[in-house]
Amino acid sequence: MRPILLQGHERALTQVKFSKEGDLIFSVSKDHLVCAWYSANGERFGAYKGHQGALWTVDVDPSTTLLATGAADSTMRLWEVRTGKLLKTWDYPTAVKRVEFSEDGKQLLALTEKRTGHLSNIYVYDINPDPEASQTEEPSLRITVDELPRVTVAGISCLSKYIVTGHEDGSISQWDAKTGELIHTAFSHDENQLVSDLQWSADRTYFITSSKDKTAKLHDTSSLEVLKTYVADTPLNSAAITPEPTQYVILGGGQAAMDVTTTSARQGKFEARFYHKVFEEEIGRVRGHFGPLNYVAVSPTGHCYCSGGEDGYVRVHHFDPPYFDFKFEVEREREQGLRF
Amino acid sequence: MAAASVQTPPARTDWAEDSEPDLATVLPPPQVTKNKDGTETIVTFFINEDGKKAKRTQRIRRTIVKKKENPRVAERRAWPKMGPEAGKPAGPRSDTTTLGENIIFRPVMGFKSGQQQEKAPEEDKKADALKKMQIKCRICSGDHFTTKCPFKDTMAPEGEAGSAAVDMDGGMGGGGEDAGGLGVGSSSYVPPHLRGKTGSGTGERMGGRERDDLATLRVTNVSEFAEEEDLRQMFERYGRVTRVFLAKDRDTGRAKGFAFVSYADRSDAARACEKMDGYGFGHLILRVEFAKKSTT
Predict the structure, then answer these.
(1) Total structural domains within chain A
(2) pLDDT: is B165 or A102 the higher one?
(3) ipTM of the assembly?
(4) Where are WD repeat segments found (chain A) (predicted)?
(5) A47 near B CB under 8 A
(6) Residues in A 256-295 with any Cβ partner in B closer than 8 A
C-alpha cells in the first residue's frame, strides 16, 4: 500500500477523524487549523479557520453536516462541514480536551481540562442537527469531576447511556449519562500512567483505551471489565478498533515527544502496530512517521486507516488484499468446519 | 479499450476542392458499424488544421464498469472546495498531498515484536552497511572490486582516463614514477610489489600473460547497441587488429559503453587513435585513447 501524506499542518497532529462513510478525514493540529480531506485521493476539501489556540480534538456528526472542535483557546466550536461556516462557539475557563458526538449525533460531549484552579468538567449539549438552526448555550448535563484525578479522555457510549472517562492515574470511570452520577471506576491501567485515548467499537458496546503504561485494553462498556490486553513496548498515544469483518486493533505511540530528537526513528518506535483483537497477538507494523503517532483512526468502512503524527503529517493507508485475507489458523479451520 | 486511430493522408488536392471549399465542408455523417468481436468501428470525416478533409477510423470496445457509491459520498465529492482551497481545481494538489513510498504490509502470525526490536538495530545496521557499500569497480563500474576487474590489465581507472593519453606520450614511466618515487623518496611504506614499478609491477600476477598494452586502444562512449564486429570493421582500416573486446552487461547483453582494440603494431594503433578519436558512431562520439596500464 502506498500511503498518502497529507501536509496541511505545520505542527503536531492531535486528532484525526473519519466521517461515518469514511470518505472524509478531519484533522486537527496544534497550528490552529482544522483540515478536511477526501480519504480516497488525499485531496484537501478545505480548512476551518477561527480557533486562536492549539486544537486538541475534533469530531464529526454521523450525517457529516456538523463538525465540533475543541482547542486550547478554551472554546468549543461547531462548524458546518460543507461551507466551513462557524455555527456556534462555547466558551470555557480552560482548554477543551475532548469533544464527541453521540451515536445519533443529537448530543455533543465536551471535556474541559483541569487547570489553574478549575476542575475538569464534562458538558453534554443537545444538538440540533440542522446547520441553520441555532444551538443551545446551556448544557443538558454538566459533570464536575472533583474527587477523581484529572480526566484525560471521555466518550458517550451506545444509546447515550453512559459517559466513560479515562483518567490521569490510569483508571476508567463510568457515569450515568442522564443523571451524571458516578457509577463505577475500574483501575485497569498501571497506576499513574495516564489514559491517552479512548475509542469505541463500531456499535459502542466496547471500547479500547491506550495508556502510557505501554498497553491498550479492550473494555466492556457496561461492566468496564477488561476483555483483552495488548502489550506494546512503547508508551501508547492512541488505539483504534477496526470494524468488521477484520478483527484487529491498531495502536499508535512512540517515545514522548520531548525525547524524540535524542533517538533514531527506529528506536523511537514510531510505528502503527496491528494486533489481532481476539488473540491479542501482534501481527504487523507499519512504519513511516518520524515522530510519535498521536492518533490513529480507522475508517468505518474498514478499507483504510490514517495516523496523525507529532511530525505534522497525516498518513492515509488504504489496505491491500493481504490485510483482508489474513486469518489465524484457528479462524481458517473454523471457517472450513462451517463449510462442511 | 483498444482505440486505434488511423488517419488517412489528406485527401488529394485537386482543383475541385481548391475552387469550391463549400463542398469540403459538407462532410458525410460518421458511420458506426458493429463488429463481430463486440467492438465498434467509427468512421468520421473532418477538416484537419490544414483545411483538408480527413477521415478517421476508430475501433472502440465499450466496457461498462459498475461502481457502487453511497449517494451521500457522491454528493460530498461534488461539494465545492472551501477555505484556503476555495476555487482550486478538483484533484489532489501537490502542496498538500503527496504519495509516500510503498509499504508492504502483510499481517503474519507470531510477529516477533519484542525480540525483533531488541535485535533489529544492530542487524539492520549491518545489512544496511552491506547494502550501502556498493562495490563498484573503478575501471569498468562493475560490481566487483577494482583488483578483481577482468580489465585491470588493459585499462586505467575511469577517473584517470583523461591523463591516460598524456601518460602514454611520456612513456610508460608517467604513472610508474609516482609510485616508484613513493617507495624511494618518501618515508611512507610502499608494498614491495609497488616499488620500482617501472620494471615489472607484476608481482601479484603469477603466470598471468602479459598483453601487449602498448598497442591497445581503449574506446569509450560506445553506443550500447554496438557489436564487436562493427568495431572491428571500423578499426581494421588502420592496421591489423589482433583483438577486439567489447564489454557487455551480463544480464541485458548490451554493450557497457567501452571496448578495447588491440593492434599488432603500435604505430597503427597510434594512427587509429588519432583518427578515430571523435569519430561519430551510432549516435555518440567515440573517444579513443591508449589503454593505460592498471595501477592497482
Answers:
(1) 1
(2) A102
(3) 0.79
(4) 6-37, 48-89, 160-185
(5) yes
(6) 264, 266-267, 269, 273-274, 281-288
